[in-house]
Amino acid sequence: MPDPISWSHSLPYYLAALVFGYLLGAIPFGLIFARLAGLGDIRKIGSGNIGATNVLRSGRKGIAALTLLADMAKGALAAWLAGRFGPDPAVIAGLGAFLGHCFPVWLKFKGGKGVATYVGVLLALAWQGALVFAGVWLAVAAVTRYSSLSALAATLAVPAVLYWMGDIQVAELFMLMSALVWLFHRQNIARLLSGSESRIGGKG
Asked: Cα dist. 99→66, 104, 118, 154, 197 in Å?
């Protein structure tokens, strides 16, 4: 356990990493890009979410792809920049970016479900885990055509693979983030169980 002197020196850096990651993650790119593209408030379309999946419901695939990349980039950038100061700040900033996306202060703490930002943080901290995520997501999507189920399956696989790789600290971070992703997808889970969840490429 760290001694009090160590904590007194480290805590300000940890708090700075968390705040930095949060503020970067809280940038609502989906909302910004949708407005710049003349789509209005994306929160009034489809699920009301600010993420790429809901932006896609507007029919603007390019804007949805741009949102996806930007939401990934902010997670990756937060963890990578904080990582210049050590592995602990990188993990903390990555968590901050994820929380910022899900609970942005600018939008009364009503943000996205965090999957793209999750992947961005994963790319910065353990790129091998990002390959696992992509592989599981694509496999499940190819079989079921459910984007939500694909993300849920991938976020189950990632912490297990990270533990197997021996990266315990990062694995614990993604265990927490995966649990939150599942929590944020509880309505999707209910629709999956009822058979009413929309499929990739579907109109529902």
From this structure: 20, 8, 10, 19, 25
Q: Which domain holds residue 193?
A: 126-204
Q: Is 118 domain-assigned? A: no
The residue assigned the tokens 């983030």 is 177
Element (H, E) at 53: helix 52-56
In this structure, the answer to whether residues 17 and 99 fall within a common structural domain is yes
In a domain, 119, yes or no: no
Q: Per the domain annotation, does 121 fall within a domain?
A: no
> What pLDDT is attached to residue 128?
93
Q: Name the token pair of 86.
A: 């050590």
Mean pLDDT value across the chain: 89
Which among 182, 65, 15 has a CA at the least distance from the CA of 114?
182
- In this structure, are 9 and 73 located in the same domain? yes
Q: If you average pLDDT over residues 165-180, what whole number do you get?
A: 94
Lookup result for tokens 């930095």? 20
Check residue 193 and give its pLDDT.
94
CA angle 138, 115, 13 (to 5 degrees): 135
The larger pLDDT score, comparing residue 158 to residue 55, is at 158
Q: Do 86 and 100 form a contact (C-beta atoms < 8 A)?
A: no
Q: How many domains does the chain have?
A: 2
Point out the domain boundary residue: 45, 79, 113. 113
Question: What's the pLDDT score for residue 202?
Answer: 59
